[in-house]
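To: structure subgroup
Subject: Chain for Friday's discussion

All,

I'm putting the inputs and outputs inline so they're searchable in the archive.
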Amino acid sequence: MTNIQIISQRATRQARPDTARHLYAVGQAVRLKGGFRSQLAADDIYRITGTLPSAGAFPQYRIRNDDERHERVTTQDMLAPVNTASGGKATLIERTFGNG
């Protein structure tokens, strides 16, 4: 096998056109949908702190609630967007540094 064939095979394996697109951006407010602990965590507002590669068919996210000291990892299908313009909690950055 030549070097060109090896490089071509590696490039083909790395390209993943079937990878799902992240719908939420870092800093965006979201809520958890159903699942375990749904009654405890579903009303809490979380912020996207990072994006992660897909787990199966769904992109993953790191999320954090300002009242908790830890982050969670969840898939996109478990999240719903939150409209913070209608009286949502201020983010940690907004509470620390003001609104700009």
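Points worth raising on Friday:
The chain has a mean pLDDT of 75.
Residues 23 and 76 are 8 Å apart (CA to CA).

D.
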